[in-house]
Amino acid sequence: xxxxxxxxxxxxxxxxxxxxxxxxHEFSVAPEMYLKTIYNLEAKTGAARTGDIAKxxxxxxxxxxxxxxxxxxxxxxxxxPYKGVKLTDQGRSVALSVFRRHRLAxxxxxxxxxxxxxxxHEEACKLEHAxxxxxxxxxxxxxxxxxxxxxxxxxxxxKGFLVPTRSEALSNLSAGQxxxxxxxxxxxxxxxxxxxxxxxxxxxxxKVEEKAxxxxxxxVKVGSNSYPLSLDVAAGIFVxxxx
Length: 243
Known about the structure:
The protein has about 240 residues and is an alpha+beta fold. Among the domains are: about 5-90, Winged helix-like DNA-binding domain superfamily/Winged helix DNA-binding domain (Arc Repressor Mutant, subunit A); about 170-240, Ferrous iron transport protein A (FeoA) (SH3 type barrels, Roll), CATH 2.30.30. Helix content is about 40%, strand content about 25%. Strands 5-10-6-7-8-9 form a 6-stranded antiparallel β-sheet. The chain has a two-stranded antiparallel ribbon with strand order 1-2. Strands 3-4 form a two-stranded antiparallel sheet. β7 (about 205-210) and β8 (about 220) form a beta hairpin.
């Protein structure tokens, strides 16, 4: 049976220790994609549920359950009945390593190869599994050490650390509050195209005009135009709140 190798980076104090984890071909359905997805869901809701993971990765809940069992056995995730799954320190380190390679690849695609802002994500998803740590470091140096990807999300350094940010979800703002878009963690291509059509890019100021009750839409002003956003979409847009 063919086998693949996945680099696992674990936290040891304030330093990173790299290990190599041997995985079967059955597990080669991008285990790193699971870890990235869980990381994003944790940041958004506090934990990742099987149904949400399955929806995002477009696979069956049964497949997700099986893979989560393997990830748990490797010490990368912890599962709690009825609460969902969370990354361990080891799993979080792997996820951050993938984010680093992915976001540097996006920068390479947009800044050097002039890929469209909305298309770079899917191409970077293919590249992130093939880029070595040394290549990632070379890309970072060549691009003069970019701090964020084209979508405003911070790029972890080679030790796996992220610069702390003070941003929060647009959905947290109250009616009348303003914020400057800082990043869009959910880099879904269709979502990026939708937000691009609304003129919502990192660095753009937005204002929450209305918030409907019972998880209703949020009316957001962008420039001179106002648009309704679902609570889910607004929760996936991070802003720096303005006074």
